[in-house]
Every structure is written in structure tokens, then in C-alpha cells.
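Saturday, quiet lab. Running sequence design on the C-alpha cells for the scaffold JK sent over.
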């Protein structure tokens, strides 16, 4: 049999095809980078201190005062409660003058809560919370009866 007029045309790969492929590839890369940059900026919680130089100059004095208290902090949580135990150097429970607690995720501030803590004679407890399971960051600021500021950050794993 002879080929009777059936011709196949092979499409040529031209410079315009290569330009289209390059533009699409770089367009995807740029779009992904823009999306990641916008999400990173939106989720950044901000600065920890207003002036890092001043904070660095005061750091050793604050650390020495805090270490002189001899406090140890242990925290535990489940999905409904948070328990913070502060003990002195002798292992006795500490009743602070007042405290501020922020419990939140390490990556964003959307889930941050300020639990109301009450001292039960042994530890500070907050009940009735609605925590999701997973890794949380606990930022504790407490003041001793003499006015000494105690600051600590703890990683807290909430189990169901």
C-alpha cells in the first residue's frame, strides 16, 4: 500500500513556545513567593521589647534578681485546664503578689488567651479552658511580694 495523501504535520517547537514555558514557570515561582511573604508578615507577632539595646543593658540585673528568688516553675495542661506550680528553693509553694500569663501558639497570636489563674494553696489553676491539643507557648510574668519581677517562657504540650 502506498501512502495516499495522508500527511502528518509535526509541530515545530519555536522560541515563542519556550518563552511561554519560561514565563509560566517563573510566574508560578513568583506567585508562591509573594503568597509566602504576605502570610509571613501577617502572622509575625511583632517585637518582644521596644528597645533591644536597653533590654540588653538591664538583662544581667534582672536575671540576678530572678535567680535570687530561687523559684522553679512547672506547668501542665489538658484541653480544659491549666496548672502552674511555682516553688521556692526549699520546694514550698509560692504565692505571688500578682501574675500575668499569656498562653498561645508559637507561630501566631490568633489563639492567645489570658487565663484567669487562682491559687489553691499548692498551684495556680485555670479551669474551663477550651484548648486544642498540641504545642503551646506559656509566657509567665510574676511579681514576688517584694516587687521582684520573675519572667519565664515554657513550652507546654496539651494532651487530650
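Result came back. Writing it out in full:
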Amino acid at each position: 500500500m502506498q501512502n495516499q495523501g495522508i500527511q502528518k504535520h509535526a509541530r515545530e517547537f519555536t522560541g515563542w513556545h519556550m518563552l511561554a514555558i519560561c514565563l509560566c514557570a517563573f510566574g508560578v515561582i513568583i506567585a508562591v513567593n509573594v503568597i509566602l511573604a504576605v502570610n509571613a508578615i501577617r502572622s509575625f507577632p511583632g517585637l518582644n521589647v521596644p528597645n533591644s539595646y536597653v533590654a540588653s543593658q538591664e538583662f544581667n540585673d534582672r536575671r540576678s534578681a530572678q535567680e535570687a528568688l530561687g523559684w522553679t516553675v512547672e506547668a501542665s495542661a489538658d484541653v480544659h485546664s491549666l496548672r502552674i506550680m511555682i516553688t521556692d528553693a526549699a520546694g514550698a509553694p509560692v504565692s505571688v503578689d500578682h501574675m500575668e500569663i499569656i498562653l498561645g501558639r508559637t507561630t501566631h497570636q490568633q489563639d492567645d488567651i489570658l487565663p484567669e489563674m487562682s491559687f489553691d494553696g499548692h498551684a495556680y489553676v485555670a479551669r474551663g479552658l477550651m484548648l486544642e491539643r498540641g504545642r503551646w507557648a506559656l509566657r509567665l510574668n510574676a511579681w514576688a511580694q517584694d516587687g521582684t519581677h520573675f519572667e519565664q517562657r515554657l513550652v507546654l504540650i496539651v494532651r487530650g
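Notes for JK: The chain has a mean pLDDT of 89. Residues 31 and 98 are 49 Å apart (CA to CA). Ask whether to fix the surface positions before the next round.
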